[in-house]
Design goal:
Elements (H helix, E strand, L loop, with lengths): L1 H31 L6 H30 L6 H4 L1 H26 L3 H41 L1
Helix pairs in contact: 1-2, 2-4, 4-5
């Protein structure tokens, strides 16, 4: 459990570092006047995707804390699973849209198809998390029922 928490912390610090680098590099390019019309859009997309990652990390951390306290089968856990699903879906849609947009500009049909694949993967991830939420609800109900029997 501590190794997983350490990995989450490293990922979170790495994403914060990446956000800082994006802001600094883009700000410097703006000051020099070397930014193109789509650079702001791409920088914003990168920041949004990293923000989605950070939101998912917070939700995973909260669920890990509940597992550690043996409180995962509680209604409070239900709110974190949709957060992970939503963050993954938004990130996939943004990355897919950027791939499709860049593929269209560069006349790269493979990149457009990659964007579509990322969209499909994001939707599949959100659906999988919805199934996991249903399983968590069912396990919680069964646990309550078992506690009443015992």
């Amino acid at each position: 459990m501590s190794a997983l928490r350490a990995a989450l912390a490293v990922i979170a610090l790495g994403s914060l570092f990446a956000q800082t680098v994006i802001v600094v590099v883009f700000g410097d390019a703006m000051l020099r006047g070397t930014t193109g019309p789509l650079d702001l859009l791409h920088a914003a997309a990168a920041l949004v995707v990293l923000g989605c990652l950070q939101v998912a990390l917070v939700a995973i951390w909260a669920l890990l804390s509940m597992v550690r306290r043996e409180a995962i089968f509680d209604e409070r856990a239900f709110r974190w699973v949709p957060v992970i699903a939503g963050a993954g879906l938004v990130a996939a849609l943004v990355v897919g849209a950027v791939c499709a947009q860049v593929g269209e500009l560069d006349d790269a049909p493979g990149l457009i198809l990659l964007g579509a694949g990322i969209w499909i993967a994001g939707i599949a991830f959100a659906l999988l998390m919805t199934v996991m939420l249903g399983l968590l609800r069912k396990a919680t109900a069964l646990r309550r029922e078992l506690e009443q029997v015992v």
